[in-house]
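Please go through the protein record below and explain what the tokens say about the fold. Record follows.
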Amino acid sequence: MPDRAPQPVDRQLPTDEARDLISLVRDIAQREIAPKAAEEEDAGRFPREIFTLLSESGLLGLPYDSEYGGGDQPYEVYLQVLEELAAARLTVGLGVSVHSLACHALANYGTKEQQVEHLPDMLGGGLLGAYCLSEPASGSDAASLRTKAVRDGDDWVLNGTKAWITHGGVADFCTVLARTGGEGARGITAFLVPGDFEGLSAAVPEKKMGMKGSPTAQVHFDGVRIPDGRRIGEEGQGFAIALSALDSGRLGIAACAVGVAQAALDEAVAYATGREQFGRPIADFQGLRFMLADMATRIEAGRSLYLTAARLRDAGRPFARQAAMAKLFCTDTAMQVTVDAVQVLGGYGYTADFPVERYMREAKVLQIVEGTNQIQRMVIARHLAGPESR
């Protein structure tokens, strides 16, 4: 079959700087990420050197203040960078999104002194972050978390277990939500915890059906002593901080989902225009043409949805409802498009010789992480009809 190279996405970018940034990201993705993605995912290898390269290239702190080593980029641009990275390898795109999520609390709620001390290394110093909210018994119901931090003089002593932690065992720092007060959301506080503190350890990574190169593990806190200077925000403010971070993080997941879907569409188009049956390319058959058209339309709709939410965020306007919509629609789109891509390739799509089966396995997790799509529907409905009756 002749090669048909996919055309780059025609992006609407606000500045020449943003266009240069996307060109840089595409170059790194094509040279350093995509060529090794299939082999390293199959081997379950985490590409730490790629994150080091991204940090050195100024790509790990894009939406944050340049005063602390960030890139001063609007979310509209940052999310399109994530999309490009995820299209090359979801482990990388999602990893950058999680790192940004882990930086959110300190960047938005930390004191000036905390930001000066820690943010430069977090945003551009080669460090990699993890976000520790979920627990074995509290996933969707995050306000019921049980990990405790008890005050001891000028320190806090942290005990408990976090679950489903991306970068668990490899992160240099963790943003941790722990219970410091009574039951419910108001008893939770946020902390910045270095990954090498005594008493912090990670379990063996989970064996997943996709994203095998991205370690997901339980993280254990056994008497971890944290100076009060690493508490982020006020006591009891942690849950509000967590929800704020998740609104932005959901947009990151939406962008990653569009990236995976775009990669699957590109592969399906290349195959359909090169594969011949009955004496002509299978792309000539109306059934496949319509399938490709529907895939492309869903992707464009998803991209427009996450960019609309991002522009609201950039303008300082409420965007939580639109973020939930974007996460819901884009991840459902990624699942449908990757399934359809496997169908376009037929038997070849079911083999590891082509990447679409990997895209399909990876797309599934995007419907689950950072709030399942059932939770997104609850969020959207609350904005429309108010809280549920009790």
Q: What stands out?
A: The longest helix spans residues 238-274. The beta strands are 129-132, 148-152, 155-166, 173-179, 188-194, 200-202, 216-227, 231-232, 276-277, 280-281. The chain has a mean pLDDT of 95.
